[in-house]
Design goal:
The protein contains 8 helices and 5 strands; from the N terminus they run E-H-E-H-E-H-E-E-H-H-H-H-H. Strands 2-1-3-5-4 form a 5-stranded mixed beta sheet, with helices on both faces. The two termini are about 25 Å apart. It has 2 domains: about 140 residues; about 55 residues, no CATH class. By secondary structure, it is α/β, with parallel strands linked by helices. Helix content is about 40%, strand content about 10%.
Length: about 220
């Protein structure tokens, strides 16, 4: 899915996985096609990483025709919110920044009616440390007791690898876990975005729904 729009609103994400997960959620929730999801490289940066993402974000704040700019950041590092604040302040447009991110997703109004609205979602849930994979973990379809049948087996495999010191994924356990779990689905190894479309991951869990509400508040005020 490649969302096309004639408006000047962007949602900026770090990489292709984030992009495809957002596209899938937008499709499942029938969001209006009035913003574009882009990675830094698609916006002219040399690489898809957090530094490029924040640089592109700051550039978009200064563009003449922007109505809204959204940003998705991983909370892998505790200073992510401070990095975001620093880039907004450097634009010197007069935004009033909250001290902490909103657990429901932060929306910062235009300071003058000309600068764009800003939205920021810090993965996974604006509160806890993590990344896209922790967000996707919350999209697994669990029973009334919070259980998902393959989850303990995936964790057991990773535990065994780590005990044998064979975990080449290093500290990126959440990424290894999600991909291990996806490898055991009816259609093994689908990317996360496609797994949402196939129904292996639910677009209607509380966290996914909260994320979509944030998108609507930002791009459809």
């Amino acid at each position: 899915m490649n969302r096309q729009t004639t408006t000047t609103a962007y949602l900026l994400v770090e990489g292709n996985d984030d992009q495809h997960v957002v596209w899938a959620l937008c499709k499942e929730h029938n969001l209006p096609d009035n913003f574009v999801v882009r990675t830094p490289k698609a916006m002219g940066a040399t690489a898809d990483n957090v530094n490029s993402l924040l640089t592109v974000f700051a550039t978009q704040l200064l563009a003449d025709d922007q109505t809204a700019v959204g940003l998705i950041l991983d909370a892998d590092q505790q200073n992510r919110w401070q990095q975001f604040q620093s880039h907004v302040r450097q634009a010197n447009l007069g935004y009033q920044l909250p001290a902490q991110p909103d657990p429901a997703g932060t929306i910062i109004p235009s300071p003058d009616g000309y600068a764009p609205r800003i939205g920021v979602w810090i993965m996974p849930d604006n509160t806890n440390p993590g990344a896209l994979e922790e967000f996707v973990n919350q999209m697994m379809i669990r029973n009334a007791h919070g259980k998902e049948p393959l989850e303990p087996f995936a964790n057991k495999i990773l535990d065994e690898l780590e005990q044998a010191r064979l975990n080449r994924y290093g500290h990126k356990r959440s990424k290894a876990f999600v991909r291990t779990w996806l490898a055991w689905q009816e259609q093994p190894g689908l990317p996360m975005g496609q797994a949402i479309g196939r129904g292996f991951l639910s677009a209607h869990t509380p966290l996914a729904t909260a994320f979509v509400r944030w998108l609507n508040r930002l791009f459809n005020p």
